Amino acid sequence: MSKPLSGQVALVAGATRGAGRGIARELAAAGARVYCSGRSTRRHAATPGRPETIDETAELIAADGGSAVAVRTDHADEAQVAALAERLKRDEGRLDILVNDIWGGDELIGWGQKFWQIDMTVARKLVDQAVFTHLITARHLTPLMVEAKRGLIVEVTDGEFPGYRGQLLYDFIKSSLIRLAYAMAWDLKDTGVTALAISPGFLRSEAMLERFGVTEVNWRDGIARDAQFAHSETPRYVGRAIAALAADPNVGERSGSSIWAADLADIYGFTDVDGTRPNFWRNVEAWLDGEISKGTPLSGETRWILAARYAHIHTDPARAERAKRYAAALGALT
User: Fold this and answer.
1) Domains observed in the chain
2) For the chain, give me the number of helices (H) and strands (E)?
3) How confident is the model at residue 1 (pLDDT cuts 50, 70, 90)?
4) Model pTM?
C-alpha cells in the first residue's frame, strides 16, 4: 500500500469520534504518525451518552498497522494546548498536518429556533467550544509549521456553500470555521503553510448510525427510513480527502478555499471504503430536478429539502440559475 505521508506527523484535534476519528485513521493509513487529541478517554468521559474515546481511536489505528498517540487535551484550555505543542516539539520535532475538528454541539443546537429565542448561555458555550478552540489550537500549533516552512491546516466544517445552514447559531459556527481558514491563509502567505476548510457530506457517524437504528454493516437498512441516506458516507471518506490534500505537492494552490470532500474524490480518484464515490448534494440536486420537472405539487419533504438547498446556494453567483429555478418551484418567483 502506498504511504505518501510516511515520516510526517499529524495532529487531529477532536479525534474521538465521527469525522475526527475517520480522518485520524486515514492519515495514519497514509503513513503519518497521528496524535489523537480530545477530552474523552476511558478514565475521563467528557461527552454524556457517548462511549467513544481517543484511546479507542489510537487503538483502531494500531490495529490497522498505523502509528498513533492519544493525548487528552481540552482545547478550550490554552495552557493544555500550549503543553501539547511543546510535547510535539520535544517528542517529534515537527508537525506537518493540523486538523481542527472540535465540535460536540449536536445536542445543543435548537433547530427551529429563531435567533431571538436562543439561550445565550448555550450560544456562548458553543462558540467557545466549537470556534475559539480552533483558534487556540491553530495559534499554538502553527509555529511548528511556520518554522519548518511547510504544513497543512484543515478546518473541518459543514457545507462549503456561502448561504444559510438553517439555524443562526449553527450557521455562525460553521461559516466562522470557513472564515478562519480563509483569514489564516492570508497570514500564512509566503510561509509555505496552507490553510483551508473542508466539508464532509451526509456523515454516517456513530451517532447517526444509532439514530437510524443501524450499524455500518447493515447501514443500507436505514434507506427505508430516509431515501437520502443512500448517499451518505463513512467518516473515512473525508479522511481520505484530507490525506490526498496532504500528499499533494501543489496543495498551496487551494489555500484559503472551502472544499467539498466529495469533489476532491473526483479530482484525486479516491473512494469511500466500499469503493463508491458518494456525493450527497449532487445526488440530491439530481433528485430535486426530477421532482421539479414532473410539474406536479411538491411533497412536504421535497419542499423542505428544496428550501434548504436554496438557502445554501442562493448567494453564489455560479449557482444563480439553479437558485432561481428552486425559488420559482417554491413559489418565491413567478
Assistant:
1) 9-278 (3.40.50.720), 283-330 (no CATH)
2) 12, 7
3) low
4) 0.96
